[in-house]
Amino acid sequence: RVVYCKGAFVPEGDAHLSIFDRGFLFGDAVYEVTAVLGGQMIDNDAHLDRFERSLAALAIPLPVPRAEIERIQAELIVQNNLAEGTVYMQVSRGEADRDFLYPEGLSANLVAFTQARKLADTPSQKNGIAVDLAADLRWQRRDIKTAMLLGQVLLKHQARANGFGDVWMVEDGLVTEGSSSTAFIVTADGRVVTRPNSHVALPGCTRKAVLRLCDSHGLRLEERPFSPAEAQGAAEAFLTSASSFVTPVIRIGDVTIADGKPGPMTRQLQAYYLEAARGPRPA
Ligand code: PLP
């Protein structure tokens, strides 16, 4: 695999970062993951917007112009012959002797790589998954997409060990989001419900796309928080992310959702999303 590291495209074994990189020492870095389908990036403008917003929130300068980042992503897709999978990119604040206070004028490190994997029509998307419930133990600026992900690593492992496909995190009696996804439910009268964007969760790019699809197809949408109990009693539940698209949730904790099969609204949104992702893109 060819990867991008600090200005150069190199074989992955030749890519090196300093042990003093602040991403390594402090998690002082932000990242993005863009899905690739048929060799084309999906929702990449939204991912780049969020990348810039995360960097600005941490006062990390964008090391290369946005157009150059797009060129690097595209080049990795071509060089690795990637038809389906993801492009990961990360910017860390840079390298300095270890100190919580960072010096002015560091030069930020950009790395990027591709991962080949099946994204569309996966067994999880066809059959749905079970999600565990766990207290959200992360910091309070979850709207910034930082590389500081141990909360999710721990909770996802715990969920796996308990036999679940993933976990929905809970704070103040309300679902915040999935370990790496946005949580949705559908009410008995057919309204699609998800939390409004705030500091408690990452503003999902796939969430944004799904909200746009609800709007363009005349589906009723409600942006409000919901409790685990409301989710367990909902007509349908699903989650969204760049790498899992729209994935049905058929059990939450020990409660089966409706008849335990992916619901019709979820199926409809899956189809709309795939159609938009595969459809013609602006040149
Ligand atoms: N929430 C968290 C914590 C995430 O890590 C992710 C994606 O990785 C999402 C939500 C979904 O965001 P997106 O749809 O932009 O992939």
UniProtKB/TrEMBL annotation:
Gene3D superfamilies: 3.30.470.10, D-amino Acid Aminotransferase, subunit A, domain 2. GO terms for molecular function: branched-chain-amino-acid transaminase activity. Keywords: Amino-acid biosynthesis, Aminotransferase, Branched-chain amino acid biosynthesis, Pyridoxal phosphate, Transferase. Pathway: Amino-acid biosynthesis; L-isoleucine biosynthesis; L-isoleucine from 2-oxobutanoate: step 4/4; Amino-acid biosynthesis; L-leucine biosynthesis; L-leucine from 3-methyl-2-oxobutanoate: step 4/4; Amino-acid biosynthesis; L-valine biosynthesis; L-valine from pyruvate: step 4/4. One of its GO terms (cellular component) is cytosol. The keyword GTP-binding does not apply. Its cofactor is pyridoxal 5'-phosphate. Its EC number is 2.6.1.42. Acts on leucine, isoleucine and valine. Belongs to the class-IV pyridoxal-phosphate-dependent aminotransferase family. This is Probable branched-chain-amino-acid aminotransferase. It comes from Manganibacter manganicus.
